[in-house]
């Protein structure tokens, strides 16, 4: 997650689920088919990806930053997993700060390509560390969700696309490059972009982006079902890769577990953890390693990602 904070724009959406129920009650009409539930995302699988990202950083100067060997090795790792799972992958190049950067885009075959649901995360770290919470956590959870789509041979109504962005830490460079290079027609086909940046903070909170109402409700309802209260996400607003999509008029949403802000006493009372301490004391530091992850938060948020992907693409 980068540091500067642009302003807030809210997109809107309308969900007409009630009409399906009414239609199913008309004499002679078949009831609407039930939406298949998302599978449980194994946190062990997510953590295995984090271990690989840590190993990549360790072997490449301790980081996975833009323009460094550790970033490209991270991208190659993710791409190989997706290629083996049947995705159509594409690597998009750009230049920032005199170095070549890369975005990875993966499309799951099928679904209405005029209605695209995207889920993404930034894959780069800062130069000072391995970036395992920021943002190996989001990258690994999105990867494991994409692999779950393949394992289930999920055939949603809408088209699914996953993305891993480069140079987010330099100012959302990769995601902005992607959005700016879409035609207006292709931007209009994206019915929602879901962003996941820092979802395993060790002193975790449970924050939901308050952008598109339908996406926000999907996440809030999931956590309500777990008995986990959520709060509106404010610390990272505009600071991650949803911002270019939002500015282009794409409905956005996402999850976050907190960065350098301190957890309040009220938040500690409802979520556990330590009040007066940062959600992530290793934010943008060398100690953001595999030991800097809250397994419970990572597990819950990974499952929430899959839930939203299944619900919003059906």
Note poorly predicted spans: 3-32
- Approximate shape: globular
SSE sequence, one letter per element: HHHEEEHEHHEEHEHEHH
Helix content: 25-40%
- Largest sheet geometry: 8 strands, mixed
What topology, given as strand order, has the largest sheet? 1-2-4-3-5-8-6-7
Overall strand count: 8
If helices are DSSP runs of H or I spanning 4 or more residues, what is the number of helices? 10
The Cα radius of gyration reads 19 Å
Overall pLDDT confidence: 91
What is the rounded distance between the termini? Answer: 30 Å
Strand-residue proportion? 15-25%
Task: Describe this protein's structure.
The chain has helices at 17-24, 43-59, 69-84, 132-151, 173-180, 184-188, 213-226, 242-247, 265-271, 295-313, and strands spanning 88-96, 99-108, 112-122, 158-165, 190-196, 207-208, 231-232, 252-256. The protein is an alpha/beta fold and 314 residues long. It has an eight-stranded mixed β-sheet with strand order 1-2-4-3-5-8-6-7, sandwiched between helices. A hairpin with a 2-residue loop joins strand 1 (88-96) and strand 2 (99-108). Helix 2 (43-59) packs antiparallel against helix 3, helix 2 packs across helix 4 (132-151) and helix 4 packs across helix 10 (295-313). The radius of gyration is 19 Å and the shape is globular. The two termini are 30 Å apart.
């Amino acid at each position: 997650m980068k540091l500067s904070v642009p302003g807030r724009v809210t997109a809107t959406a309308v969900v007409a689920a009630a009409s399906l129920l009414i239609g199913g009650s008309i004499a002679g009409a078949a009831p609407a088919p039930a939406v298949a539930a998302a599978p449980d995302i194994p946190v062990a699988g997510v953590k295995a990806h984090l271990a690989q990202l840590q190993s990549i950083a360790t072997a490449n100067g301790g980081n996975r930053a833009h323009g460094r060997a550790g970033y490209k090795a991270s991208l190659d790792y993710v791409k190989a997993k997706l290629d083996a799972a049947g995705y159509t992958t594409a690597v998009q190049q750009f230049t920032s700060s005199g170095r070549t950067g890369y975005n990875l885009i993966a499309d799951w075959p099928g679904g209405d390509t005029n209605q695209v649901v995207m889920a993404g995360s930034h894959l780069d770290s800062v130069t000072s560390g391995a970036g395992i919470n920021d943002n190996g956590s989001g990258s690994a959870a999105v990867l494991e969700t994409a692999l779950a789509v393949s394992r289930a041979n999920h055939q949603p109504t809408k088209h699914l696309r996953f993305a891993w962005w480069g140079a987010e830490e330099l100012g959302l460079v990769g995601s902005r490059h992607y959005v700016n290079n879409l035609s207006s027609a292709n931007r209009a086909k994206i019915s929602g972009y879901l962003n996941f940046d820092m979802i395993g903070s060790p002193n975790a909170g449970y924050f939901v982006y308050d952008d598109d109402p339908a996406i926000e409700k999907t996440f809030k309802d999931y956590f309500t079902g777990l008995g986990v209260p959520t709060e509106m996400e404010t610390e990272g607003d505009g600071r991650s890769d949803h911002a270019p999509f939002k500015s282009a008029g794409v409905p956005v949403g996402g999850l976050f577990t907190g960065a350098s802000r301190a957890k309040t006493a009220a938040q500690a009372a409802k979520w556990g953890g330590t009040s007066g301490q940062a959600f992530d004391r290793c934010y943008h530091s060398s100690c953001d390693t595999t030991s800097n992850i809250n397994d419970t938060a990572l597990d819950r948020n990974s499952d929430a990602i899959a839930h939203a992907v299944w619900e919003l693409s059906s």
